[in-house]
Amino acid sequence: MSVARTICSGFLIMIAVGTVLLIPPFSTSSGDWNDPIVALFTATSAVCVTGLIVVDTGSYFSSLGQGIILLLIQLGGLGYMTATTFLLLLLGHRLGLRERLAIQQSMDRTELSGGASLVLSIIATTMIFEITGIFLMLPIFVSDFGSGQGLWLAIFHSVSAFNNAGFSLFSDNLMQYARSPGMNLIITGLVIIGGIGYQVIMEAFLWLRDRLQGDKERFVFSLHFKIVTNLTLALLGMGCLALLFTEFSNPFTLATEGFGVKVIMAWFQSAIARTAGFNTIDIGSLTNTSLLIIASLMFIGASPGSTGGGIKTTTAGILMFCTRSVLQGREEVLCYQRQIPVDRVLRAITVVIVSGMMVIAVTTLISLTDPNLNFIDILFESVSAFATVGLSTGVTADLSTLAKLLLIVTMYVGRVGILLLAAAIFGDAKLSTIRHPKEDL
User: Fold this and answer.
1) pTM exceeds 0.85, yes or no
2) Which of 59, 247, 261, 415 is the one with CA 20 to 30 A from 343?
3) Chain-centre distance for alpha carbon 349
4) Tens of pLDDT along 302-334?
């Protein structure tokens, strides 16, 4: 069992356990045995923090079933290695080389040391932001549903938002809060912070700590921090403007709203589109142009070391700077006065090509199994599953069993990652001492 196989099998184990727990009658509100396909799809969506659903979570599952889903979301958001390493640390186990390598590979880190402190800081950061989200949402939900139900709704949606899962206990997701600035800001804030990655959060914390302590020494942000933050801000702004423009006159979405509400709704869907499956707009009523824009944002996704999916902002950033270098006639890829290693460029190209092939293959197969569906709906569903976003035009529940199984596989591949899954299947790459002659073409 290599490190990659351990991580991939760990996610499979969590999905299997979640499926078994969601099948018995105590997990459903009706008290009947759950459909195994529904249980498997829901467990996979929760562990892979996707948010795609085939049944209404709030009415179909019992309180215990909802609690199981919430636990799967939390474990899936933390990741298999983070959760198991934290358990080992609680039991007093010292991390060996194998555990450190696993943490390094699962987090896509360059350093091998500091694994234990990293895991503890991840757990602490997660708890801080989730508890903060609970307290911020508590007054809104308590005023609408009372103290008991309001507390549970605040806990569920805070954990779901920070882990970029997109699960909601409302049948219309969050459409009833489309005009609530507070709810929109809280949910998008949790989703964005959860999607930028723990390294960026820690660097921002260290910078803020130095400023508050009066440390006048210049804080140097890493290249990773610069690419992630700048590209995230650019995608948020461009996505908001694009959706505002394409949906401004759509009578089924934004046309009947005031300008301020239009901006809030466009901002919410732009921020959510890259990482989580919440919605305050009926996705099925969006224009094809908006669906294509959102699909593009979903494909890019979140950042490395976060709870989101997609090809990641760093991958998109590397390819952008690679393109700029070629257009400028440079032989190396420069980014913020730093040279990006060739192996990182090759990894980025590989991720984009294989991810695109995965989406095309799944879209093609579902088009064959469910020919009655519109192509744009199938493409949107495939990208949403692969990027572990969870947005849907409303066709998920109507998919055939084979199509649902295809989406289950897609969500799993999107969560563990293309490169990690390839390493688990084919084994770690073996370095060769052979050097072949070069030839131009």
Assistant:
1) yes
2) 415
3) 20
4) 888 787 888 999 999 999 999 999 998 888 888
